[in-house]
What we know:
It is a single chain. This protein is mainly alpha-helical. 86% of the residues lie in helices and 0% in strands. Helix 2 (13-24) packs antiparallel against helix 3 (26-39), helix 2 packs parallel to helix 4 (44-69) and helix 3 (26-39) runs antiparallel to helix 4. The longest helix is centred in the last third of the chain and has 26 residues, at 44-69. It is flat.
Amino acid sequence: MTNKAFVWIRDNKWLVAGVVIAVFNPIPSGVVLGIVMLTEEKLAKIGKIVLAISIIVVTFLIFIFLQDRSR
Length: 71
């Protein structure tokens, strides 16, 4: 990684942490973290991104689960 990548990650640490949590644990943690971020004025934009990713991942998991059960 270059120094620019490290600087970007450092500057966007809340976004990176939120996306990682939303992807690996979308239902409880991703949704809760997204809602909490929405309540903070400085983190509202990041909260929308985290909440959206959580909802997308949950929808994808439900779709996969329902496809598997229909066989």
